[in-house]
Amino acid sequence: MSMEGRTCVITGSARGIGRGIAEHLGREGANVVINYRSSEGEAHDVVETIESAGGNAVVAQADVSDRDEVTHMREICHEAFGPADVLVNNAGITADEQFTEMTREEWDRVMDVNLGGMFNSTQEFFDDIWNAEDGRLINISSVVGKQGNFGQANYAAAKSGMFGFTRTIALELAQGGSTANCVAPGFTRTDMVEGVPDKVLDRIVAGIPLERLAEVEDIAAVVRFLASEESAYVTGEVIDVNGGMDL
Ligand code: NAD
What is the extent of the structural domain holding 97? Predict the structure, then answer.
């Protein structure tokens, strides 16, 4: 139970990668705050799964792009478990369009959630992470932030924006002993890739040396390492979890 007693807030954790991270950390003894925007039933399912494995979890509804709602999420966390040791900025959306067709609204929507949500949550929990002294900020970026991807100019810009943000926060946290890192998953089997046509997925897999998409657990295991005390001397890094896509 390497995460025993550590309080972890995971944004967008009712499903997909966030859910996998929440369940993994919960299994290892963490107190977990399950944030959701609209999937209330699924969020409660995650709590149940964690509790039936002997862990502690609570739900916190908040649209991460809304500062007041994120403030409320922090209050829920403090009331249930006290200050957070770990914040995982996982909530993210896509609004794909070839650039010439992309509307300013699609651009803004992706920035508001993917970067604005990270700003709001990080600022709300910054003092908690600092005061923990071995606190952890973990931002879920994407291989797309490194490589770009046709039709994802907004998403790629947001995801590579996370790299600079993480390195800067790593510097601002370092004196207190806490760390900030990014995880950059490759294509992972979740709802986000559900809509991708099989033909396109086959082409993607053909370009992955390990010859498969990532499973949620592949990402969760790396986040578990970064969230734990074992990663104390790793900060400002981007950890690729992409099956060797950039080899
Ligand atoms: P998903 O769509 O299954 O899950 C995203 C979660 O974020 C959902 O629970 C959703 O409700 C939540 N969310 C979205 N907007 C929110 C908001 N405003 N406030 C609170 N929650 C919100 O996607 P996923 O594949 O699990 O993606 C999780 C993260 O991993 C995202 O940041 C995504 O960009 C990143 N990522 C995914 C892949 C992939 O291939 N699936 C690859 C690289 C990176």
Answer: 7-188+216-235
CATH of the domain at 231: 3.40.50.720
Asked if residue 92 has its Cβ within 6 Å of ligand 1, the reply is yes
> Which residue CA neighbors atom 9 of ligand 1 most closely?
12
Q: What percent of the chain has pLDDT over 90?
A: 94
In the structure encoding, which two tokens stand for residue 3, read together?
């995460």
Q: What is the pLDDT of residues 44-101, one digit of tens each?
A: 999 999 999 989 999 999 999 999 999 999 999 999 999 999 999 999 999 999 999 9
Helix and strand counts by DSSP (H, E) for the chain: 10, 7
- Domain for residue 196, yes or no? no
Kindly give the distance from the C-alpha atom of residue 15 to the centroid of ligand 1, in angstroms, as a whole number.
Answer: 8
pLDDT band at 122 (very low <50, low <70, confident <90, very high): very high
Closest listed residue to residue 42, CA positions, set 72, 18, 24:
18
The answer to whether the CB of 193 is under 6 A from ligand 1 is: yes
Beta strands in the chain (DSSP E): 7-10, 31-36, 56-61, 86-89, 136-140, 179-185, 238-241
Q: Is residue 230 part of a domain?
A: yes
Total of domains in the chain = 1
Report whether 77 contacts 84 (CB < 8 A).
yes
pLDDT band at 155 (very low <50, low <70, confident <90, very high): very high
Distances (CA, A) of 60 to 12, 20, 54, 112: 10, 17, 20, 19
pLDDT in tens, 212-223: 999 999 999 999
Ligand 1 atom nearest residue 13's Cα: 9
